[in-house]
Amino acid sequence: MTTTTAPVAIIMGSRSDWPTMKHAADALDRLGVAWDARVISAHRTPARLFDFATTARATGYKVIIAGAGGAAHLPGMAASMTPLPVLGVPVQSKALKGLDSLLSIVQMPGGVPVATLAIGEAGAKNAGILAAQILALSDEGLAGRLEAFLEAQTEAVHETVED
Ligand code: RP5
To answer: What is the number of structural domains in the chain?
Structure first.
C-alpha cells in the first residue's frame, strides 16, 4: 500500500484548477506543512477518486482539500468515502463565475459534511490555513507558527491611509 508523510492531500478536478489551488499549497508551505497534489475528477476519473478516497486515511493523510469548478462534485464525493475532514474550494468557473461551484459544494445533505470555503484564490488560501489550524490541534510547533503568521498579518495592516 502507498503511504505518505504529507498530512494534507490537495485534490482537484482538472489541471486547470491548479492556478487556484496553488494558493492552498503556498499557504501550507508558508506554515511548514507538507502536502501532496493530484488531479482527480469525480466525472472523468471516478475510479481514481474511489481508490484515493477509500484509502486516504490508511495512506496517512489527515486533511483533504478538494477544489473543483462548475458541477463541482469532487469534495462531496470524496467526503462520502472517507472519515477525514474535507475542505471544499469552489473554483471560479467561466460560465457562472463560481456560483455554480459554490452551490454544488456547500449544499451537502446532513451527515456528510464538507467545510466550504470562498470562491477562488481566497478560498484556496483559507483552505490551506484551515488545514494547518486543524493539524495544529495536535502539533505545538505548528500552533506556534500559525500564531506568528496571524500576528504578522495583523501587523502588516496599517491604520493610516498614507505613510
Ligand atoms: C471541473 O471542471 C474542474 O474542476 C474544472 O474546474 C472544470 C473545468 O475543467 P477543464 O475543462 O478545464 O478540464 O471538473
So the answer is: 1
| Exposure class string for 111-142: b at 16+ Cβ within 10 A, else e | eeebbbbebbbebbbbbbbbbbbbbbeebeeb
Residue nearest atom 7 in ligand 1 by C-alpha distance: 69
List the grid coordinates of 2: 502507498
Cell digits of residue 97: 463565475
ipTM: 0.96
What is the pTM for the complete model shown?
A: 0.97
Which residues constitute the domain of residue 112? 8-155
136 in a structural domain? yes
Q: What string of pLDDT tens digits covers the 163 residues of the chain?
A: 789 899 999 999 999 999 999 999 999 999 999 999 999 999 999 999 999 999 999 999 999 999 999 999 999 999 999 999 999 999 999 999 999 999 999 999 999 999 999 999 999 999 999 999 999 999 999 999 999 999 999 999 999 998 7
Q: What is the CATH number of the domain that holds 115?
A: 3.40.50.1970
- List all residues whose CB is within 6 A of at least one atom of ligand 1: 12-14, 16-17, 41, 68-70, 91
Specify the ligand 1 atom closest to the Cα of 91: 6
